[in-house]
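Hey, I was hoping to borrow your eyes for a little while. I've been puzzling over a protein and I'd love to understand its fold better. The fold is given in discrete form, as structure tokens running alongside the sequence. I'd be grateful if you could look everything over and explain what you see. No rush at all, and the record is pasted right below.
>
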Amino acid sequence: MSERKPYKTDLSDEQWALVEPVIAAWKAAHRSVSGHQGRYEMREIVNALLYQGRTGCQWDLLPHDLPPRGAVMYYFTKWRDDGTDRTIHDLLRWQVREKARRKADPSLVVLDTQSVHAAAGVPAESTGCDAAKKVPGRKRGLAVDVLGLVIAVVVLAASVHDNTVGIALLDKVAADTDTVQKALVD
């Protein structure tokens, strides 16, 4: 593979050193029946996922010097479904927190919700209308640490009350970490 110019979203060597063992273990546990090892470097797959996640580009519009949509989406769906993406996210979050001289897991989270319009193809049973904001669609709730790093996310119908979203977020935070002692809400 020829050397390409790096994107701002590419993993640093230090980040790759954290992530690579997780991916190598995943690959070892998910061997191809045919013995095929894959055509693309796993670091480039992760770089493509980070690029798509940061830019929000459509899968078909990934730059041509990154692995193709099909290969990237394959790993995205597999890792999303089995939690590998969460493991990688947590490793990178812990690294950022430690570089900021903070403990790996937070003791405080900030909760907030936002109602967003749903796309045309989203099933009606998973959407609603936020009566206060007059927004038809979904409501996303985020729990972040003081650095703004994501700790938990929930997505519900926009018609769901903010208290319900907050409870779901706190339940998720409690399930994922036992260090959080305080939550701030607007």
Q: What stands out?
A: The chain has five helices and five strands.
